Amino acid sequence: MIQTSTLGFLKKLKKNNDKSWFDAHRDDYEAAKKDMEAFTQAVLDRFGAKEPDIRDLTAKNCLFRINRDVRFSKNKAPYKTNLAASMGRGGKKSIFAGYYIHIEPGSSFVGGGIWMPMAPELKKIRQEIDYCFEEFDQLITGKKFKSVYKGLDREEGFSLSKVPQGFDKDNPAAEYLKLKSWIASRELSEAEVSSPKFLKQTVDAFEALQPLVQFINMSLE
Fold this sequence. Notes:
Pfam families: DUF2461 (PF09365). This protein is an alpha+beta fold. The protein has helices at 4-15, 19-24, 26-47, 59-62, 119-131, 133-141, 143-146, 174-177, 190-193, 198-220; strands at 83-88, 98-103, 108-114, 182-188.
């Protein structure tokens, strides 16, 4: 579970996103960071027993910095208003598909997959979906996957308007070949995040996602 004090810190940070406030509340941030690190490590310890790709990771390999990169952004707020961890082969900078935890009051979620892979990886994933569409379709329509996720995310910018070059427009996998990211996520309430059941809920969500992650990674290998 995530402590309510961690959620409280993130709420305050959203209202006071500047360096002077952050410096004055650094102890609160360190406590929130430690809380997120402990939860991430608990997930790694439990789910890692079933997922070799993350078995040797530590929480520090997976946690993102709270500082924002504002160099090319119109939004100059210096800090993210969330705590997040990405668990994939090799850690948070991995090119492989993996698992993700996002803690943000009102916008928390767990899930994973692969987000905006580079062109070579993108091509490999599309080819694998084309070659093995029946298997892929079973993964994302199966009972276990659907018990947690509604389907693959289709946010704006996640998909091409047309089937990519090299594939027939009538391809039965067309809607999935158009995707630029293959992500599934489950939204979480504050009550769920701060519940003692949150660890099990997260591990269960990752187990439901695991066949899809393995399918994507097999295509990249």
